[in-house]
Amino acid sequence: MRRPIIAGNWKMHKTARETAEFAEAFIPRIADVRDVEVVIAPPYTSIATLAEKARGTNLRVGAQNMHQEDQGAFTGEISAPMLKELGVEYVIIGHSERRAYYGETDEGVNLKVKKALASGLTPIMCVGETLEEREKDATADVVRLQVEEGLKGVVPGDGEKLVIAYEPVWAIGTGKTATPDQAQEVHSLIRKILGKLFGEETAKKVRILYGGSVKPENIASLMAQEDIDGALVGGASLKVDSFEKIVKYYEP
Ligand code: PEP
Hints:
Layout: E1 5-9, H1 16-29, E2 37-41, H2 44-54, E3 59-63, H3 80-86, E4 90-93, H4 96-101, H5 106-119, E5 122-127, H6 131-135, H7 139-150, H8 156-159, E6 163-166, H9 180-198, H10 200-205, E7 207-211, H11 219-223, E8 230-233, H12 240-247
Parallel strand pairs: 1-2, 1-8, 2-3, 3-4, 4-5, 5-6, 6-7, 7-8
Helix pairs in contact: 1-2, 5-7, 7-9
The structure holds phosphoenolpyruvate (PEP).
């Protein structure tokens, strides 16, 4: 009942020309994919190119961040209307790299999530614990706080439009994946928290993606878990072959 999403986060990879080359090779390969939402979030400089190539296809375009204001004196920032005009439908918010390197806080994440929802963009809100927090047995507390603070003031009707990505920081770009059981445990906790915030019916509709060293070899076992509704994929989304295999995780 929850339509899976496989989303590629390209981070600071690929020029516009490289993006065009990727799109030309990749889009025909996913033309027959019907039951999975396929998203790529390239760098800002590649969004227009990707959106142009993706028009009329089943590839959707995301952004990796945005500002919470529509416009203003915010040098270096990009707003929701700017993304929407280019055809962007999804926006990653609060990725752990933005939290770690650019000082993003739960409060800031909350403003951006609310802005994305109000603008008709689908926020992919990222949460997840560090290795130190996991080793201190603090995973549940950390994730609960990030979810509750990130979603403060979001009304249940908007809740179902949300996407959450659980990305344990120790698994991002490290080659270490959470086991399907470890991931499922946190996904089910997140759904319980959503149930308290928005009610059971809404919580059942929210897609919760797993992220952290997802590869063609581990995607099927992750997707087999009850509360894992897709993946946010970094490194393995940069190559046509590996991203195609992840998108088609259901093929034997
Ligand atoms: C990410 O950056 O969201 C991510 C999950 O990266 P990787 O797949 O490379 O671990």
